[in-house]
Amino acid sequence: MAPLELTLKPVGRECATLRTVPFAYSRENCLRRPVPAPPGPGHKNGPDSRGTVPGDSPRGICYSSYGPDSFTNRNSVLPVPSMVVPLPPTPDLTECLLRLVCQIPPGQVATFGDLADALGNPVAARWTGRTAAEQASSETCPWHRLVRADGSLSPLPARADTLRRRRLAQEGVAIREGRVELAQFRFRGFRSDRPLAQLRAVQEQLARKLKRSPRKRIPELVAGVDVAYPDSTWAQAAYALVEAESGRLVWSETIRRRVDFPYITSYLSFRELPILLALLDTVREVGKLAEVVVVDGSGILHPSGAGIAAHLGVVASLPTIGVTKKLLCGSVAVEGMRPGEARPVLVEGRPAGLALRPTSGTRRPIFISPGHRVDLAYCERVVRTLMFGRRLPAPVYWADRLTRAR
Question: With 80 as the cut, is the pLDDT of residue 48 above it?
């Protein structure tokens, strides 16, 4: 099978193929520069003596190559054809944000939304606000020049707020009734490669590689994967192999890795794919990779058409199903749903997923969508088979519990 090759097109620069080394945004100029490609993902469950997990890179993410040699030949274990699908290089968004904030001249302000737009997607506004609050007392970057969309000052501890107001006054920025007049003081002239727009383009290219394959047989064993965060810098991923007939957990694996990419709505793939691929690599080596994997995350019910379940399926060449508690796109009326009832989620007038009210114990539906190499009808059959009276299908339920185990 020919390798999948995606392309990243930087603004004003020549095309960079995703086979190349990862790039980073430097504090000095926030421009692309190559860094050495990291080795393959490590398989240890914790950090080494230097506090990092083997295979980690602060600027790029690795990929795994799946071959058939290590697989056992049993009913529910999938021999994966050999292929290499590189993940896109990921920017250091915190460094890029820092550089953008430093572009705001004295005597002017910018909104969190302005910064998000400069990064390439307004959905990042909440993350820029959180980061600014964490850095409010910094002496090296003018975080005090950031305001809300209406010009008001975001809440800060009293000491940090006093410092912010004093700095703005020293630069000639007037604050009246807790607001800055944006028409007079707003700055929007950012210079940026818009990294989030580039990553969105990668997702959209990948969405065109997805396959809708009708399947009939539900395998004896189905797996689920999930990721949780013990703290802001570490992730714990779990793989749960479950008996489809009973929902019984028959085998599991968990790993921990550092995370560098922040949580930004609809960009979860770039945060969690590195650890999930490392996890699947570990599972593959012991011959426990299931024929179908249910992912705690969106499939095609995603603004780009390729959420993490779809992305993981293409990169790892696996049939995947997305199950999530949050609807990122599409429309569906969930009022009055009966327990066990499913309703189609429409995207541009066409069914792209399902809302399913799992039990009488909750009114909140879950949202099901195809990832890769499955169709919607098969996804519904698999998920219904695996519910066992819980809100989540058994593979995701067990994976979720495992990620939270200490």
Answer: no
Please give the DSSP secondary-structure letter assigned to residue 16.
E
109: in domain: yes
Within-domain flag for 113: yes
The answer on 226 and 116 residing in a single domain is: no
Provide the residue range defining the domain that includes 70.
42-88+213-403
In the 8-state DSSP scheme, what is residue 76?
A: T
Q: Which residues contact 15 (CB under 8 A, 6 or more apart)?
A: 7, 8, 9
77 and 108 part of one domain: no
Q: How many helices and strands (H and E) does the chain possess?
A: 10, 16
Q: Are 386 and 394 in contact (CB under 8 A)?
A: yes
Higher pLDDT, 131 or 30: 131
Q: Mean per-residue pLDDT for 353-374?
A: 96
Crossing angle between the packed helical segments 308-316 and 195-207, to the nearest 10 degrees: 60
Query: Radius of gyration (Cα) for the chain, nearest Å?
Result: 23
* Mean pLDDT, residues 300-324 taken together: 96
Kindly report the pTM of this predicted structure.
0.79
